[in-house]
Amino acid sequence: MKRLLFVLFSAALCSVSALEYSRTDEIQTFRPGNRSKVAENTIFFPEFQFMYGLFQNYLHKWIDRPLFFDRDTRYPDGTFAYVTGKSFLKEAEIVKSYGFNGLGSLANIAGGALYRDTDQFAVKAGKLPVAEVVQYGYDGNYKNLKTILEIASKSPFTAKINGKILVPTYNVFYSNVKNIQPMLDQARKDFPGGFYLMAQMDIRPADVKNFLRNGSVPDEVKERYRQEIRNILTVFDGIQINPAINYTDTDGEYMCRFDTSFYLKEILPMLKAELAKPEFKGKLLGNTILHGYINHMSGVNHGEFGTARLRHSLEASTLGNPDYVLFFEWNEVNENTCFQPTLYNSLALQRLIRYAIGQFNGNAPAPNPGDDPALPNLVFSSRETLKSGEPLQFELMNIPDGSTGNYTVQAVINDLDGKEIFRFPTESVAKDQFRTITYTIPSEQFKGQYIIRPALQISEHGKTVPVNNLHYVRIHPSVCNVYKSVRQPLRDLLTPDSVNFKVVPDNNGKFAISAELHSSEELASLEILDLEREVTAADPTNEFDFRNNMIVFGTFSMQGAKYQPVSFKVRNSEKWQFRPWHAANVNFAYQFKRNGDTAQGSTLVWCQPCNFTLSIPRSDIQNAVIEVSVNGKKAEFKAADLEKYGKMAALVIPGERIRLDLENFAKLPDIPPQLKSKHAAISAHLPSAAKYPVYQLRAVTVNGKIYRSAPIMPRRPSAQTTVVNIFSETAKKVVAVPLLTDLLPVLNYRFDPAPGAMIRSGSDERFDGQLGGGFVYCEPFCSGVPFPKGKTSAPVWKHENGIDYLHFNGENQYLNLPAESFPRGSFTVKLSLRPAKTATPMVLFRHFDRWLGSVSAYLKYDRLYFAFGDRELKTHTFATNLTVTPGKWNEVIISYDCQHITFLVNGKSRSFPLTARALYFKPFIFGGHDKIEFGIDRKMTYFHGDLKELIIKHFAERTSK
User: Is 245 left (phi over 0), alpha (psi -120 to 50) or beta?
Assistant: First the structure.
């Protein structure tokens, strides 16, 4: 059983400053409970997603990638595969190091063929370090279930319990029981050897919140769960359940929190009682374990909280003594549910899970092979980035490894230059105790600090070892879309023999970057990061050669999905090259062939970014013309224009809404092959997409150790601050905080037709918008929002009285601005618009994709209306009674300081009290869409009229000081 100690500090003092924080102290054991299970031994395994091999190009779409990335496991040139034998078997070996018994394969629907492929990889190799566990998600098609059961029944690697095939569920819920019964009956006739087909039971977040609030739930709620358990066990061969339930603290953190107490107190006793009944003898109990769900594209984030969710989930699961434990998922990079070692996770999850499984099975703890016993088996976790007002957590987790004795650890917070800001008390830790100490600090206390650097002081036997190369934490005044934790085992930190890293600005806005590193261990990669993302790397092959070539990054996207014939040509250049983008779910250009001056082929264009790169010699740029043809429709771009503007775009086939975006690329296009050398160097001369770049050198060894340098910020903001109202997620109230003025985004969009179907932010390229578009995953028109057929989505550039402006047709034309361009806190939006006269209400803008972010603004009877949908899904609607005159230019300003919403139209103003918070970070759409939800309560038109100014400020301009 765990022991929780909560110690609160209202203030703590050091020689530099005072800092308020809270402290928790937890001890966990992971010992099995007293339930009698069916399986002789519990099976532990992660779910494997076929489409994410160790060879995919994870850059610039996802925020993490496999720690043991290896391009040598990629498919041959000119082909494509979701999984290769080399990659699969290498991952299976890694899986074994966790103490897992199996590797779950998601095999229903299209996954059936890939499940057969992976099984054949194992057969051909003559071995598999772990057993395969086939998972099934009900789709109503018995043919799919039969196919995977046939493969599983013939495979020598299939996991079985008491001679029966184990088939855990992937989202087979109780609601499907009536539909699945005939299929189960047929399967049991066709496979007399037997199988265990499981069903998932969900726990409702509302019941958990009620339980946490009142300490119990009504008897009728308990009876409902009891009946659901009986219904599942009557039809299926067992029940699968997640012991950690997500719920939203509407007054607290942006991330969803988790709870295991409801499961332990209410649900687990019911499960044990029902499974012990004679009619349910032989039925299985399985658990699903997550360590978090972090989606940097959708805004949905179920917090990891260091390792807290995983630790508590594992502990709750072991107390039920389950027949199997499914870890969700091994390598799903879209939602960052990876249990696989990654750059963020390092080997922290491997160390924790290996220990927990060992304790459950009664094994003595032991270090990882190659561990240095001079350092404790301690894991430090923190967030990579935060938005001011969010709580910052530092987690110290000690994992026993068989050694004894005590050591002390002290956490320190330094500023960007390494100067100490705060020092926590010294903690004494017993090596043989699984113990986790967590400090939680309200981040709004770091006034004027953009970068903070955690460090540790480890002391044992009178010797103190400093740990200074931990990942820094960046605290942005208004923006955060990465909510992952960075887990850093001290024994997996690389200490180079020597390192030299310099960044020098030039007079043209670029930076001369040089780095050299010597290591006693063989390196896999050496990379330069800017704002935590890869921009260049050591590559002895010089694959892309930025000095002599312009690298063009291109993306096709469309609403829907369609195979399209595509061709590329670069006129006035003989040595240009085309290269596919090797990423999952792209299916692009692997079969393209170069014939003379043209590369052509066919590709699927859909809601996944269909990316490619072109390489054009710099000596050809002034005369080169990029010509792209899609189904016979051409788009042309002068290479010199692309170099000048940085980004350009076009709707290649407007009626089918196929758009093409091009970028003069100054980032790493693909991870180079592994270095496999103990020395590496980088020399580069690059621009930065950021006004205030933050550079870092990162090295990864073949064995998975990571070195992270201190950050370098070659251009710094001034000390000037602006007082902004923000929401403190710790205090659960609005507080006024001085934030660095230079870092507060002011997006004054440039109305310039030269780049084509796009609009530049005028500040930071990550906020650049599209004319139309928004067809990519988690953008407004990916799916779920109706769109008229056969129409263009881009407004039209027009010119009048020396001014360029955009005209919107009122049917389906809009601007799509990226997530976080419109903030989740204080804001000012300024518009200069000329609406047409309409009898139907029209949408102005929304903070929305297919799900709510927060706001909807619209015109009705020439009056301005505004709606704010909050975290409790409550809509606050405001009728301003301010007139926006049709046929004339109007200045509209909407300002929100987290306490009041103020509307100013042509000099007349109205203000209302409002303290609502945004539900999710989402894109900002001007001109649409018209989905009836959260303030849009009737059929409306898209914006009809003209727009010549759009400014978004991440503070309330009228109340700032």
Answer: beta
CA 504 to chain centre: 32
The amino acid at residue 200 is Q
Q: What percent of the chain has a predicted confidence (pLDDT) above 70? A: 94
Task: Give the per-residue pLDDT at 182.
Answer: 84
Measured distance CA(420)–CA(452) in Å, rounded: 10
Please report, in angstroms and rounded to a whole number, the separation of the first and last CA atoms in the chain: 52
Distances (CA, A) of 780 to 301, 724, 758: 19, 29, 16
Furthest-apart CA atoms within the chain: distance in Å? 86
227-281 pLDDT, tens per residue? 999 999 999 999 999 999 999 998 899 999 999 999 999 999 999 999 999 999 9
Phi, psi of 96 (to 5 degrees): -60, -35
Of 345 and 508, the one with more pLDDT:
345
Find tokens 């800092």 and name the residue. 19
Task: State the DSSP H helix or E strand holding residue 92, giving kind and residue range, or none if neither.
Answer: helix 85-96
| Rounded CA separation 544/550 (Å) | 9
Are the CB atoms for 346 and 490 separated by under 8 Å?
Answer: no
Q: Cβ of 214: how many Cβ atoms within 10 Å?
A: 9
Question: Cα separation of 698 and 705, whole Å?
Answer: 11
Cα–Cα distance, 242 to 171 (Å, whole number): 11
Instruction: Give the rounded distance of the alpha carbon of 138 from its chain centre.
Output: 27
Crossing angle of the two packed helices 177-190 and 219-235, in degrees rounded to 10: 30
Beta bridge partners of 463: 460
Tokens 């009836």 sit at which residue? 932
CA distance 354 to 352: 6
Q: How far apart, in whole angstroms, are the C-alpha atoms of residue 734 and residue 915?
A: 8
> What angle in degrees, to the nearest 10, is found between the helix axes of 177-190 and 142-154?
40
pLDDT at residue 14 in the model: 36
pTM: 0.95
Is residue 385 a contact partner of residue 474, using CB atoms and an 8 Å limit? yes
Assess contact for 2 and 28: CB atoms under 8 A.
yes
Please give the angle made by the CA atoms of 831, 833 and 834, to the nearest 5 degrees: 165
Say if residues 938 and 841 touch (Cβ distance below 8 Å): yes
**b (16+ CB within 10 A) / e for 839-865:** eebbbbbbbbbbbbbbbbbbbeeeebb
- Given this model, what pLDDT does residue 184 score? 86
Beta bridge partners of 738: 723
CA dihedral of 787, 791, 792, 796, whole degrees rounded to 10:
-110
Q: Residues for the chain: how many in total?
A: 961
Q: Which two tokens stand for residue 254?
A: 């942006």
For the packed helices 85-96 and 111-125, what is the interaxial angle rounded to 10 degrees? Answer: 80
**Strand, helix or coil for residue 90:** helix
Q: At 275, which helix (H) or strand (E)?
A: helix 268-275
**pLDDT band at residue 949 using 50, 70 and 90 as cut-offs:** very high
Q: How far apart are CA 233 and CA 199, in angstroms?
A: 9
- Whole-angstrom distance, CA of residue 264 vs CA of residue 261: 5
Task: Check if the beta carbon of residue 315 is closer than 8 Å to that of residue 28.
Answer: yes
Residues 6+ apart with CB under 8 A from 603: 556, 563, 564, 566, 587, 588, 589, 610
Closest CA to 946 of 684, 686, 769, 751: 751
Contact (CB, 8 A) for 815 and 935: no
Do the beta carbons of residue 601 and residue 589 sit within 8 Å? yes
Using alpha carbons, list the distances in angstroms from residue 723 to 5, 124, 415, 744. Answer: 37, 65, 21, 11
Q: How many Å apart are CA 539 and CA 535, to the nearest integer?
A: 13
Find out whether 381 and 348 touch, Cβ atoms under 8 Å: yes
Segment 739-765 mean pLDDT: 95
Find the radius of gyration of the CA atoms of the chain: 29
Beta bridge partners of 626: 570, 637
